[in-house]
Amino acid sequence: MSKPRVAIFDFACCEGCQLQIVNLEEEIIDLVGAVDVVEWREAMSEQSHEYDIAIVEGSITRPEDEHRLQIIRSRAKILIALGACATIGGVNKMKNNFDLNEVKRCVYGKDAEMPHLATTTTRALHEVVDVDFKIHGCPINGEEFKQVVRDLLLGKKPVIPTYPVCVECKAKENVCRYEYDEICLGPIIRAGCGAPCPSAGWRCFGCRGLVDNPNVDAAKEVMEKYNLTVDDLKQKMVLFNSK
Length: 243
Ligand code: SF4
Ligand code: SF4
Ligand code: SF4
Description:
The chain is α/β, with parallel strands linked by helices. The protein has helices spanning 16-22, 26-34, 63-75, 84-87, 100-108, 142-153, 165-171, 196-199, 216-225, 230-236, 238-241; strands spanning 5-10, 36-40, 53-57, 78-82, 133-135.
């Protein structure tokens, strides 16, 4: 039986999630032995229009991005969004809080109107095409990446957690960041990372995006308990979860 052909692509991003794949080192060789990697700009010079699985990093932020993503989608049987930029728009969506022309002037100054610097409202991949699976995080968790690829190779549907980060955080017996007068997004953000941020003394910044059906009432109760408001919570969501 022929191996599945995999192609890896990127749009607007820092390529940090692809780096997480490269960082798997020996383990990636096992995975690569089970598939044919036919295109991966970060790691090889070959290119191919024929692939079964497309792994796509980055968000859609330029006029030409949408068409390119649609072509990738039309060629792939399975499309996987890799990392927060791709799954939720991530930090790139902060741009959407401002007037696009002002953003361009701020970043590019007198060159802002040059045609190759045209920009659009940032979108996650699923806002443009159908996405089959999402590997969350900024950056992704290498273990989760391996698990998703293994499941797909075995014909299984990858299981992505549908409960909030607080579950993993409490299992680690961390003192809640709210006790330190911080606003942590753990109650409404999707688990699967193992709560590394609260475990290291940081609040959760929300890089894995909102959990399915977030318990808004419970989040409100937490805010009230600590004399905070829902607006305080929303402000903390701007970094990774802007609209
Ligand atoms: S999700 Fe984070 S690490 Fe991954 S490409 Fe985007 S900015 Fe970089
Ligand atoms: S709010 Fe944050 S620190 Fe508190 S339990 Fe949830 S994830 Fe942990
Ligand atoms: S704890 Fe929050 S910010 Fe940290 S990796 Fe997990 S989802 Fe991302």
